[in-house]
Amino acid sequence: xxxxxxxxxxxxxxxxxxxxxxxxxxxxxxxxxxxxxxxxxxxxxxxxxxxxxxxxxxxxxxxxxxxxxx
Length: 70
Hints:
Shape: globular
Number of strands: 0
Mean pLDDT: 87
Number of helices: 4
Low-confidence stretches: none
Order of helices and strands: HHHH
Largest sheet: none
Radius of gyration: 11 Å
Strand content: under 5%
Structural class: mainly alpha
């Protein structure tokens, strides 16, 4: 889910969420799918990242989740 979100692959994010992917899963630095989707987006793929963020938020992702600084 995190890789799909980071890549702005909204259709894949939708599919993974429908299959029960954990919207709250985090990596060892605390990054989540929604934080990765929000970080992407300064390119032509912005529309996909925006859609991925919306899908994740609608699925209950917490926009205020903290990540570690690195």
